[in-house]
Each structure stands twice: as C-alpha cells, then as structure tokens.
Amino acid sequence: MIEISGLRKTYRSRKGSVTAVDGVDLHVGEGAVFGVLGQSGAGKSTLLRCVNMLERPDAGTVRVGGQEMTSLRRKQLRIARHGIGMIHQHFALLSSRTVAGNVAFALEVTGAPRAERKARVAELLELVGLTGRADAYPAQLSGGQKQRVGIARALAARPKVLLSDEATSALDPETTDSILRLLLDLNRRLGLTILLITHEMTVVKRICTSAAVMRDGRFVESGAIADLLRAPGSELARDLFPLDGPTAVDGATVVDVTVSGPEADEPIIAELARRFAADVRILGGSVETLAATRAGRWRIALPGGAEDNREALEFLRERGVLS
C-alpha cells in the first residue's frame, strides 16, 4: 500500500544543511499498522509528510496504492490526497467551527453535496463515539474528544491510508489507550492501512504489526514485530521487553529466549528442564499481548558452561527461540 525507496530530504539554511531523511526504504502492506519509532529530531515527521507530499523529497520515490506521488502535478496531487487521511498531535481543529463543521470541512474540499456531507458526518461521529457532540465547539471538548474529531475528519473522504503524526503524545495514558483502541478497531473494521510515528513504545506495543526504529534520518531496523523480536541484538525487542536480570552468573550459561504466537503459551522452559534434566533459573522476563500476537522474552541460566549445555542450546535454536 505504501512503498518508499531511497527517500532523502535535506533542509538548507544560511547556517548549513540538515539531512532529515537519509535514504529510507519502507514497505507498508495493505491493512497493516506500521509504527516508526524514534526520538525528537530523528526525521519521523519529515518522513510522514513526504508520504502525502506535504514535503517534497529531494530524491527517492513514494507510492501510495500503486500511485507514484512524487511525479504528480498540483491538481493530481490534491485529488490523490483524498485517499490519504492524516491526524495530528495537536488536533488542528478549526476553533470557529463545531464538531460537525470540522468533519464536514474535509468533505467540502472534495466538493461533496450538502446532503451527502450531512449523512457522512453523522456516520463518522457515530463511528468515533461522538454522537450527541455534533454542535459542540473544540473549546468544549476534552483532548481525547478533540482527537476523535480529528480522526473522523481524516476518514471523511473514505481514505485507504491513515497517517498519524504523534497522535497520542498530547494525551494522558487513559485517553491514549482509548484512542489506540479506536485506531485498532478502525484498522480491523475498515481495512485501513495506518502509518504512524511516535516516540512512545506503548503505542508500538499496543497496535503495531510492524515497526521501524529511526535515528538520524535512517532506519536502524525495520520489519514485522514478530521477526524483530527474534532478531539478535534488536533494539526494538530490547525496548519492548526489557530484561533486568543479570547477564552473567557464576557457573552457568545465561541466554535470552524470545517467543511469539502460539508458542508464547507453550511450556518451552519446562520442556527444556525435563528433557535435559537441567535446573533452569529464570532471571527475568515477561509475556504480553501485542497488537498482532502474544509474545515474550526470558533471560535464563543453565547450570554449567556452553559446552555442557551444547544440546540444550541446540534445542532452543531448533525451536527458533534463542535470541
């Protein structure tokens, strides 16, 4: 649904130049929820704005739904953007318009007839849980309600792609959770493809099926969450499931075990202990439910050195769980 190749964007000023996005490749499949995780200044927002050409890249290509965005002229681009919704960190609502008026504005831009706008606004407000608030103004709404208006407006033209620019970072934890549940529900009910940027690991953990870690304009790692969890040295796996147990124990072999999917609920550690008559110690870890699957990581200690545990370690490798 979203294909980015060799994307590069540099900002120039009298003081010099800053490369915000430096040769990024990205694939977001249809119906996926893809999160780009990184700190402020990593290049996340520039990357997102290049998808709908609010920022023109200096190099590279962007395809959305098979359409080459970088080659479109102004009028063609305006039409193409109708298929790409966007929600913002600080809501970007029109203070002089009611809730209904803010949502209807997106339909006015597309030239939808008045009767169609009215019906669609009512449908969208019900979809995002704001029935009864159509005549309220933004100043009368909570942060979570404002973001629901922003989501409804982004969906007005029935886009297939939704871009989320730190949509929950201005919200408290409880409200953040409700907005993430709404986005996940919309993804599943509407088949919506979502590309979001965030600095919050909670967001990735709650709704993302795939993710990338971005730093200094580049992707450090990228892929399906289930695959990244198993990748040796994965930053995402480390941050999703921090292991606070010791990395070394006298007279023992310490290893990390990562599981996902059905095997997250299988007694792998118990089987390991029975099969090799080993007093396995669990030094730390947890199992949690992510958006796409159950997953977990443990740090365990096996008595003896690596050679003593050669068969046990081979067992873990064959099961594909040794990190």
From TrEMBL:
Which BP terms does GO give this entry? amino acid transport
**ABC transporter domain span:** 2-241
Q: Which GO terms describe its molecular function?
A: ATP binding; ATP hydrolysis activity
Source organism superkingdom: Bacteria
Enumerate the InterPro entries for this protein.
Answer: AAA+_ATPase, ABC_transporter-like_ATP-bd, ABC_transporter-like_CS, ACT-like_dom_sf, MetN_ABC, MetN_ABC_transporter-like, NIL_domain, P-loop_NTPase
Record key words, sorted: Amino-acid transport, ATP-binding, Cell membrane, Membrane, Nucleotide-binding, Translocase, Transport
Q: What is the protein's given name?
A: D-methionine transport system ATP-binding protein
Q: Tell me the organism.
A: Actinoplanes xinjiangensis
